[in-house]
C-alpha cells in the first residue's frame, strides 16, 4: 500500500522550478519589444523548470530601479535588464552584482562594468550595411537622406556606421539628416521639405521600419515613388519590415534581432555553470525582394510552431491540472482503500474474537449455571445457619442478661458480706488486743522467769497466733478502707532511707532466727521525700515478710534505696534469693486473696501484696515484681519524691529540711490548732527489741511512732524530731533512761516533752528517782497496754492544757508568773530575744533559732508544743503586745508605733492588730484614753 502511494507521488510531471530568471524591460509596447519577449518565451518553452518573472518599467527609469530591486528580493537567480536610460540604471546593476546575482544587459549597456554578459545588435554595423547596400543600389552615385531615431547610443552608432561607410563612395552625398523619434509620423514634415528642396534625392535611410513607413507615405504624397527606402528591424507581422519589402513599399529592411532568445540562452548557460560569451553581438541580415519570401515563410513557420508550442503548453497545463486532481482523487481512494482494508482486517479479527468469546461465554454460562445452583444451595444452607445463629444469639443475649443479673446479685451479696466481714473484723480486734496484753505481760513481765519452758513455748505460740490474727484483721480493715476510698494519705517531709532502715532493722531478729542474711543497701545517706509512714509501713512490712516467708535458710534478702534516673522519684527494692514465682502466677499475685503455689510455710492469706499495691498506688507510686522461678524475686516500690498538696498532712507545713527563710513579719494564715492525737509523735526508747516493737505496735494505731534501740540513739532522735511524748526504758546499756530524761529536761529544746518511764523494777525508791529526774509517769513491766495508751493520752492532753494556759497568759498581757516553770522560762527568754530585735522587719526564724541554740525545726516544734502556735505567730504576738504598750503610752503616732514594732507598712500593722484584738490601733488608743479619763 505504501509502495503504491509513493509510486503515485513519484509520477508527478511538474518538478518544482529550479531557477528563477528575472527580466526588467524598459518598455513592453512596440513590435520590436514584443518580439524580444516572444523570443524569450519561445526559448523558455523548452525549459519548464525555469520560473520567469517579467517587469515592465513603462519607460520610467525610477520605476525600473524599483522593479530590479523587487526582482532581486523575489529571489531571481539571474537578471536580464533591458535598460531604459543607461546612466540611471548603473546603481541597480551594481546592487545585483553585490547581491551575487549575475546581470545580462540586453540591447543597451549601462555605465557600470559589473555585468555578466551583454546581448545586443551591432548598430554601427547595421548603419554601415545600410550605406554599402545603398551604394550598391544607386551604383555609388546619388543624393541620400538619413532619418535617425531619438538621440541615443542606438541612433548615434547607426548614424556613425552609416556615415563612415558612405565615405568610401565619394559620389554618394547625404542631402540631409532628419531626427525622428522612432514613430512613423515623426519625420514626415521635415522629410517633405527636404525632398522638395532636394529633388536629386534617390534614397532614404530610416533607423526603423516604422519611420521608413512614414517616409514611404511622404514619397507617395510627393509623387516620388522612385525614391528607394531602407529601414531597420525586418520584423514579421502586419505593417512590419517584411511585409513592407514584400509589398514594395520599401526596398530593403535590415533584420536587427531583439536578442530575446540569445539572452535566455546566455542566462541558462550561466545558471548551468557552462562557458558563455560575455559580449554577444548579433549580426544584421539584409531583407530585400530576393529573400523576403523565404524569410516570410520562415517567420510564418516560426509563428505557427510557436502557436503549436503554446497550444501544447496549454494542453500540458490542462493535463497537469487533470492529473493533479486525479492524483488527489487517487490519494483519497488509496487512503479509503487502506482504511477499508484495515477495517476489514479488524472486523474479521473482531468477528473471530466474537466467535471465540461466544464459545467461551457459552462455556462460562454453563459454569455459572452450575455455580448459581451451588450458590442457591449454599444460600439455603446459610439461611438455615442464620436462623440457627439468631436463635443462638437470642440464647446468648438471654444468658448474658442472666449473667449480668447474677453479677449484680453477687456484687450486692459480696458487698453485704464484706460489710459484715469488716464489722466482724472490727469486733475481733478488741478481744485480740485484750488477749495480747496479758500474754505479753506473762512473757515479758516480772514473773516471766518463773515460766516453765513448755508454758513459755505455748505462750509464744498464743502470742504469734494472736499477732497473726491481729495482722489479718488489720489487713482486712485496710483492704476495706482502700475499697471504699476511706484510706487517706497524710504525708510529711521525711527521710526515706531512715524510714526503711528502721523497718529493716525490725526484721533482723526474725531473719537471724531463719538463718537468712538481711542486708540494707541505701545508695544515699538520706533521701528526703514526702512520706506517709502509716501507709508505707504496711507496704514494706508485707514485702519483707513475704521475702522472709519464701526464702529458705542460707538465702539472702537485700533491701536497697535509691533515687531513680527519672526526675524526682525514689525506689525501694526488696530482693530475695528465694523460690521465685511461677510465670503463670506472676500476673495474678497482686490480686486480692490470690495465692500462687502453696506457700512453703503453709501460712498466708493472699492479701499482703494486694494491700501493698493498693497502698503504694494511694501514695502515687508503683509496685512491680520481677521474678525467676527457683532464683528469687525482686519487688520494686517506686515513689514520687513530692506529693500533691491534698496528700500532705495538715500539720506538715514546716518541712524537716527548711532552707528558705521566711520574714517574721508575715502572719500565718493557718489555724494554729494543737496537733490532733493521730498526728502526735511518740518516741519509744527501749533496748529490748520485742518490748520496743510491742510498745510501738500498741501505740501505732493511735499516734505516729518512732523507735530508738538505746539511750544514746533515743536522745539524738528526740533532739532531731522534738517528739510530743517519749516512752523510755530505764535500764538500758550506755545511757540509762534516767540520764536520758535528765538531759532532755536540761535542754530547752526538749525540756517540755513529757516522758513515760518503763521499767521492770518497781521499787518505790526507783520510781521516786525517776520522777525526780523529770519523768511524768512511771510504768512497771509488765504493764497493761491499755493503761500505757491511756497514760500517753492523758499526758498529751495535759500538755495541751498547759499550752492553752500559757498562750492565754501571753494574750491577756499580764507578765509571766513570778516562779516560772521551764516552759515559762523558755517563753520569757524567747520573748526577750524577739523584743531585742523588735524594730527589725527582716528578722528570720532561722536567725532567732540560731541565737537560742535551736534548729529552725526544733524551735518550730518547741513553740508549737509549748504554746500551740507557730513561731511566726508568737513573734507577731510579741510585736503586737509591745504595740499595745506603746499605744497606751501615747508618745508615738500609730505609724511610728508600727515601725517601732517591726512592721514595714502602716496598713499591714493595722490589719494584723485588728485581726488580733478586734479593733484598729487608733480605736485601741481612743478607748484607752476614755478608760483613763
Ligand atoms: P500471701 O499471704 O499468700 O503471701 P501475698 O499477697 O503476700 O499473699 O502474696 C501472693 C502470692 O505471691 C503468694 O501466695 C506467693 O505465692 C507469691 N509471693 C509473694 N511474695 C513472694 C516472694 N518473695 N517469693 C516468692 N513468692 C512470693
From TrEMBL:
Residues 354-413 form a coiled coil. It is an enzyme of class 2 (transferase). InterPro entries: CheY-like_superfamily (IPR011006), HATPase_C_sf (IPR036890), HATPase_dom (IPR003594), His_kinase_dom (IPR005467), HisK_dim/P_dom (IPR003661), HisK_dim/P_sf (IPR036097), Homeodomain-like_sf (IPR009057), HTH_AraC (IPR018060). SUPFAM superfamilies: ATPase domain of HSP90 chaperone/DNA topoisomerase II/histidine kinase, CheY-like, Homeodomain-like, Homodimeric domain of signal transducing histidine kinase, Periplasmic binding protein-like I. Keywords: Coiled coil, DNA-binding, Phosphoprotein, Transcription, Transcription regulation. Its EC number is 2.7.13.3. This is histidine kinase. The modification 4-aspartylphosphate is found at residue 729. Residues 423-643 form the Histidine kinase domain. PANTHER family: HYBRID SIGNAL TRANSDUCTION HISTIDINE KINASE C, TWO-COMPONENT HISTIDINE KINASE. The keyword Transcription regulation applies. Signal peptide: none annotated. Gene3D superfamilies: 1.10.287.130, 3.40.50.2300, Histidine kinase-like ATPase, C-terminal domain (3.30.565.10), Homeodomain-like (1.10.10.60). Residues 828-927 form the HTH araC/xylS-type domain. The keyword Phosphoprotein applies. It comes from the Bacteria. It catalyses: ATP + protein L-histidine = ADP + protein N-phospho-L-histidine. Residues 681-796 form the Response regulatory domain. Pfam families: HATPase_c, HisKA, HTH_18, Peripla_BP_4, Response_reg.
Amino acid at each position: 500500500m505504501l509502495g503504491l502511494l509513493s509510486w503515485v507521488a513519484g509520477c508527478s510531471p511538474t518538478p518544482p522550478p529550479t531557477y528563477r530568471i528575472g527580466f526588467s524591460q524598459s518598455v513592453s509596447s512596440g513590435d520590436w519589444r514584443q518580439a524580444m519577449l516572444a523570443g524569450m518565451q519561445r526559448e523558455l518553452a523548452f525549459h519548464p523548470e525555469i520560473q520567469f518573472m517579467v517587469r515592465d518599467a513603462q519607460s520610467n527609469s525610477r520605476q525600473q530601479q524599483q522593479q530590479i530591486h523587487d526582482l532581486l528580493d523575489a529571489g531571481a537567480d539571474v537578471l536580464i535588464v533591458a535598460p531604459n536610460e543607461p546612466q540611471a540604471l548603473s546603481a541597480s546593476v551594481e546592487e545585483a552584482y553585490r547581491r551575487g546575482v549575475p546581470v545580462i544587459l540586453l540591447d543597451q549597456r549601462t555605465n557600470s562594468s559589473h555585468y555578466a554578459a551583454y546581448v545586443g545588435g551591432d548598430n554601427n554595423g547595421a548603419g554601415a550595411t545600410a550605406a554599402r547596400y545603398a551604394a550598391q543600389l544607386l551604383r555609388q552615385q546619388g543624393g541620400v537622406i538619413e532619418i535617425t531615431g531619438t538621440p541615443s547610443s542606438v541612433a548615434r552608432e547607426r548614424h556613425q556606421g552609416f556615415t563612415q561607410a558612405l565615405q568610401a563612395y565619394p559620389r554618394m552625398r547625404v542631402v540631409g539628416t532628419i531626427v525622428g523619434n522612432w514613430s512613423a509620423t515623426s519625420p514626415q514634415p521635415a522629410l517633405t521639405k527636404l525632398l522638395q528642396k532636394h529633388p536629386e534625392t534617390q534614397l532614404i535611410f530610416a533607423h526603423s521600419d516604422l519611420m521608413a513607413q512614414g517616409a514611404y507615405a511622404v514619397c507617395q504624397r510627393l509623387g516620388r515613388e522612385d525614391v528607394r527606402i531602407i529601414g531597420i528591424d525586418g520584423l514579421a507581422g502586419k505593417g512590419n519590415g517584411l511585409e513592407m519589402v514584400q509589398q514594395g513599399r520599401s526596398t530593403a529592411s535590415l533584420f536587427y534581432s531583439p536578442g530575446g532568445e540569445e539572452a535566455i540562452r546566455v542566462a541558462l548557460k550561466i545558471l548551468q555553470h557552462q562557458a558563455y560569451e560575455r559580449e554577444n553581438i548579433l549580426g544584421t541580415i539584409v531583407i530585400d525582394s530576393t529573400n523576403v519570401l523565404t524569410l516570410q515563410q520562415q517567420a510564418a513557420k516560426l509563428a505557427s510552431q510557436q502557436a503549436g508550442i503554446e497550444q501544447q503548453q496549454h494542453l500540458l497545463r490542462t493535463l497537469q491540472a487533470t492529473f493533479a486532481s486525479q492524483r488527489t482523487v487517487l490519494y483519497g481512494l488509496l487512503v479509503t482503500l487502506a482504511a477499508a482494508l484495515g477495517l476489514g482486517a479488524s472486523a474479521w479479527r473482531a468477528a473471530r474474537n466474537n466467535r471465540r468469546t461466544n464459545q467461551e461465554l457459552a462455556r462460562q454460562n454453563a459454569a455459572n449455571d452450575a455455580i448459581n445452583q451451588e450458590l442457591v444451595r449454599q444460600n439455603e444452607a446459610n439461611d438455615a445457619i442464620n436462623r440457627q445463629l439468631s436463635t443462638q444469639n437470642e440464647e446468648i443475649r438471654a444468658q448474658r442478661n442472666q449473667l449480668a443479673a447474677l453479677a449484680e446479685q453477687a456484687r450486692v451479696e459480696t458487698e453485704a458480706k464484706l460489710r459484715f466481714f469488716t464489722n466482724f473484723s472490727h469486733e475481733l480486734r478488741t478481744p485480740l488486743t485484750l488477749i495480747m496484753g496479758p500474754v505479753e505481760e506473762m512473757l515479758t513481765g516480772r514473773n516471766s522467769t518463773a515460766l516453765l519452758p513448755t508454758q513459755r513455748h505455748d505462750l509464744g505460740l498464743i502470742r504469734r497466733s494472736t499477732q497473726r490474727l491481729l495482722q489479718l484483721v488489720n489487713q482486712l480493715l485496710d483492704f476495706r478502707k482502700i475499697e471504699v476510698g476511706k484510706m487517706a494519705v497524710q504525708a510529711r517531709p521525711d527521710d526515706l532511707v531512715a524510714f526503711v532502715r528502721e523497718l529493716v532493722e525490725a526484721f533482723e531478729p526474725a531473719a537471724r532466727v531463719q538463718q537468712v542474711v538481711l542486708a540494707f543497701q541505701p545508695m544515699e545517706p538520706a533521701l528526703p521525700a514526702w512520706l506517709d509512714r502509716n501507709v508505707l509501713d504496711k507496704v514494706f512490712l508485707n514485702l519483707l515478710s513475704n521475702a522472709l516467708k519464701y526464702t529458705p535458710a542460707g538465702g539472702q534478702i537485700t533491701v536497697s534505696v535509691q533515687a531513680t534516673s527519672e526526675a524526682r522519684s525514689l525506689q525501694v527494692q526488696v530482693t530475695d534469693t528465694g523460690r521465685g514465682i511461677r510465670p503463670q502466677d506472676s500476673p495474678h499475685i497482686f490480686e486480692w486473696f490470690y495465692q500462687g503455689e502453696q506457700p512453703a510455710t503453709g501460712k498466708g492469706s493472699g492479701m499482703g501484696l494486694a494491700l501493698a499495691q493498693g497502698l503504694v498506688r494511694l501514695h502515687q507510686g508503683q509496685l512491680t515484681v520481677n521474678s525467676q522461678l527457683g532464683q528469687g524475686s525482686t519487688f520494686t516500690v517506686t515513689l514520687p519524691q513530692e506529693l500533691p498538696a491534698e496528700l500532705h498532712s495538715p500539720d506538715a507545713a514546716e518541712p524537716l529540711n527548711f532552707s528558705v527563710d521566711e520574714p517574721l513579719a508575715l502572719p500565718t494564715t493557718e489555724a494554729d490548732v494543737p496537733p490532733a492525737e493521730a498526728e502526735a509523735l511518740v518516741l519509744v526508747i527501749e533496748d529490748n527489741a520485742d518490748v520496743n516493737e510491742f510498745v510501738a505496735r500498741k501505740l501505732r494505731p493511735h499516734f505516729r511512732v518512732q523507735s530508738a534501740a538505746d539511750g544514746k540513739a533515743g536522745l539524738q532522735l528526740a533532739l532531731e524530731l522534738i517528739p510530743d511524748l517519749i516512752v523510755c526504758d530505764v535500764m538500758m546499756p550506755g545511757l540509762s533512761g534516767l540520764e536520758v530524761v535528765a538531759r532532755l529536761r536540761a535542754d530547752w529544746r526538749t525540756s517540755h516533752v513529757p516522758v513515760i518511764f518503763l521499767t521492770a523494777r518497781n521499787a518505790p525508791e526507783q520510781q521516786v528517782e525517776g520522777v525526780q529526774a523529770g519523768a511524768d509517769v512511771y510504768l512497771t513491766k509488765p504493764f497493761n497496754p491499755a493503761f500505757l495508751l491511756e497514760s500517753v493520752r492523758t499526758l498529751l492532753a495535759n500538755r495541751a492544757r498547759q499550752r492553752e494556759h500559757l498562750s492565754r497568759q501571753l494574750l491577756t498581757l499580764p507578765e509571766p508568773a513570778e516562779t516560772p516553770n521551764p516552759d515559762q522560762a523558755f517563753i520569757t527568754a524567747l520573748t526577750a530575744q524577739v523584743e531585742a530585735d523588735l524594730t527589725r522587719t527582716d528578722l528570720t526564724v532561722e536567725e532567732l533559732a540560731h541565737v537560742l541554740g535551736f534548729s529552725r525545726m526544733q524551735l518550730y516544734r518547741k513553740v508549737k508544743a509549748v504554746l500551740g502556735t507557730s513561731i511566726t505567730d508568737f513573734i507577731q504576738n510579741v510585736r503586737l503586745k509591745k504595740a499595745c504598750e506603746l499605744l497606751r503610752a501615747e508618745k508615738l503616732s500609730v505609724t511610728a508605733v508600727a515601725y517601732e514594732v517591726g512592721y514595714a507598712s502602716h496598713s499591714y500593722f493595722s490589719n494584723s492588730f485588728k485581726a488580733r484584738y478586734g479593733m484598729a490601733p487608733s480605736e485601741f488608743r481612743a478607748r484607752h484614753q476614755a478608760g483613763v479619763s
